[in-house]
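Quick one:
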Amino acid sequence: MAESAVSQSHPLDTMLAVSDVIRNNRLARLYTRVLELDSPTVEELSEGVESSTTTVYEDVKHLVEIDLLERVTETQPHRYRAGQIDMMIQASGETFQITPTLLVALAERRSNENIRLYIDRHGVSGLATAIEYARSYAQSKMNARIMAREQDLSVLEAETILQELEEILHKTEPDTATSLDIQELDAAVDDRVDE
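Output:
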């Protein structure tokens, strides 16, 4: 097998590998499908997708080469697992966290009109920012009004994207969600409003 671009663990190589998946929706959907199916074979990945088995095989091979997928069996048929991604990128004074949640949200833009519209209006960086808000939202540390004010959105748009992303977070980052504590949420809102 060719040496992986990410195997050297250089952050720039990892960033380039992830950017490849961010730009290619087919790769993002494949990565998401591997997360959902938990160690599938290429044949299992090919079921219910628009791409041919050959294309899926080539895409899996590419994702393995850039270390975003890992082959977990040595015998045929091979099974694959999604590699964990957790990167921080700083640009123009802002910090963005890149995790599987972003890749899953990007993959869902094709079937989820709310996510697609949000990306059209605010770009991938806007979606990455919304995911940060959604983590706080899922932990009952924030609400749509705060996001709307801080990101200059309508409350409806903020609430819509937070709800869509919260569903994705429950799948990709199940430890993020907490039980709702209304008093704690009210106190947090009051603190942020006073700022």
